Request: fold
Amino acid sequence: MPNTLPPPVMIIGQPCLRGVAKAVPPDYPIDTLMDHFNNLVSTTGGNNPIAGPQIGLDLRIFSFGGIGDNGIVINPIIVLPQLPPTPLTFSSQGEGCLSLPSLTVNFGITRFSKFTLQYETLQYDSITNLLQRVSATQEFDADLDERLCALVQHEIDHLDGKLICDYAHSSLSLTEMLDLEQRVDTISQYARESIRFGTPPGYNYLLANRLICSPARVEPPMNN
Ligand SMILES: [Zn+2]
Reply:
């Protein structure tokens, strides 16, 4: 009997979340791509966007119901408009992540507000009903849908090994951060204790967000 359990979601601390995922080659088997897509969707019950590295899949893929006929995005590239010369951005609030359970980033994450997404997806051929891999583009504008803009960039961050906690201006050194991640390898550990990351004055530091740190508790810096 085949194993029908969906793959587990990888939690912060697991190395697959921190690498740069590989591009899907042009000759990659369509059937295998469809299997990956089904695994991504079944992992979240189809309700949440999720990227390949979050299920241990080292490929530039994410599933996202809002994009493409079948909701899978392959080899995405963000293309910024040439005008204005400085990309427009907005401050994304309240982002969460399946790989950081119980954590919501409540400070503003800087996201591009206008861009074109170039990607590939899987769709059915209307005549033969065969699945095929096709190129696609989609415009994003935070003035129309801020949340969608942020979600796409959040998923692409996963393909580059970046997590929302990285946007915090942490009082921890890089060495301390790496040490912290190495200790966070199970959900039970994760929930054991909370710390607060300090950020410079002017930011709301990560309030009540839970990242394990034992035995040390790190307090935010003084505002001076
Ligand atoms: Zn995420």
Q: What stands out?
A: The chain has two domains: 15-167, 168-224. Confidence is low (pLDDT under 50) at residues 185-224. Helices lie at 30-44, 146-159, 174-183, 187-190.
